[in-house]
Specification:
Helix content is 52%, strand content 9%. The protein is an alpha/beta fold. Helix 3 crosses helix 8.
Length: 317
């Protein structure tokens, strides 16, 4: 009989921790050297192995960091202290409730009870009642963020977040498909290529942006998620795009996002613009003449400004 594996080697690999927490391997190694946490064990092959408690702590740290907490201030907090900070963050969203606001708690409870069809029906009814634009801005935006907060706090399992994401993605794809008019649509301006960068695995923001562009009369071509920068450029040129629209979530590594955006900005033809949106901190820090960061709520104004810059008549909408 083979010898039992020592208990200290049983845990999560660095790849698993990266996948579960959305913290890059480089970040984990840097924090290990700089802050002394996490301090993983090593297996027989010398590879890092993380405990379940370290994984839980890193998941909460990631969400708190995305909301503005500095790693130096929170990495060495106890798990209890991190839970308290996360609890305060969850309880503060949404800030107010009113008769006109969606019932966020009801949607969250459907996720927790794994009532997939009921969740799909409830969101579909809300879409029909509110209209697509209002549904995106007033319901999906806050609800996506709230689901993420509960995931970070541990009150949502990973698979529950995935169930929610799948329901919303299907709903948004159907809504977008219903807006496409095959007659004369190729003449619409602006022509928009949509994608995420190679390190970005979250697509809800991309679908929300595509729907908002369609509402405003743009012609959209989605490349899906995680497209290499070179291929984004090639697709944009092949489609004669006016705008490349990218979604950058909180999970995106800011340094990698900035490097990719700078590469993209230097490779697109003159006159082609790059529009970025999402909760990645890089969105607010990019300084390139051909990169813009309009919010979904102000997309109509941003497109009006684009039409003025490009000399495109508003009647083509």
């Amino acid at each position: 009989m083979s010898a039992a594996i020592p208990a200290r080697t049983v845990g999560h690999s660095i790849a698993a921790v990266e996948r579960e927490t959305r913290l890059g391997k480089d970040t984990l190694r840097i924090w290990e050297r700089r802050y002394g946490f996490p301090q993983p064990d090593r297996n027989a092959a010398g590879e890092r192995v993380y405990t379940a408690e370290q994984l839980d702590k890193l998941r909460i740290i990631k969400r708190l960091r995305d909301r503005g907490h500095r790693p130096a201030k929170i990495v060495n907090c106890t798990l209890g202290e991190l839970h308290a900070l996360s609890e305060a963050m969850v309880n503060s969203w949404p800030p107010e409730s009113s008769a006109s606001q969606p019932d966020f708690a009801a949607y969250l409870e459907l996720c927790r009870q794994h009532q997939v069809e009921d969740l799909r029906h409830a969101l579909s009814q809300a879409l029909m009642r509110m209209g697509l634009q209002k549904f995106i801005l007033e319901l999906l935006g806050p609800l996506n963020r709230l689901v993420g907060d509960h995931w970070a706090h541990g009150t949502f399992a990973v698979f529950e977040e995935h169930l929610y994401t799948e329901v919303v993605q299907n709903l948004m794809r159907n809504a977008i498909s219903g807006m496409i008019n095959p007659n004369g649509k190729l003449l619409a301006r602006p022509r928009v290529i949509l994608s995420t960068l190679p390190q970005e695995g979250h697509g809800l923001g991309l679908l929300m942006a595509e729907a908002m562009f369609c509402i405003e009369g743009a012609y959209c071509v989605s490349l899906g998620m995680q497209t290499p920068v070179r291929d984004i450029t090639r697709a944009a040129q092949a489609q004669r795009a006016d705008i490349i629209a990218l979604s950058l979530s909180e999970a995106m590594n800011p340094r990698q996002a900035l490097e990719a955006l700078n590469e993209l900005a230097g490779s697109v033809p003159a006159g082609m613009e790059i529009w970025i949106g999402g909760n990645c901190p890089t969105v607010a820090r990019v300084n390139q003449a051909n990169i813009f960061s309009p919010t979904l709520g102000k997309l109509d104004d941003a497109l009006q400004q684009w039409r003025l810059r490009s000399g495109t008549p508003d009647q083509q909408r």
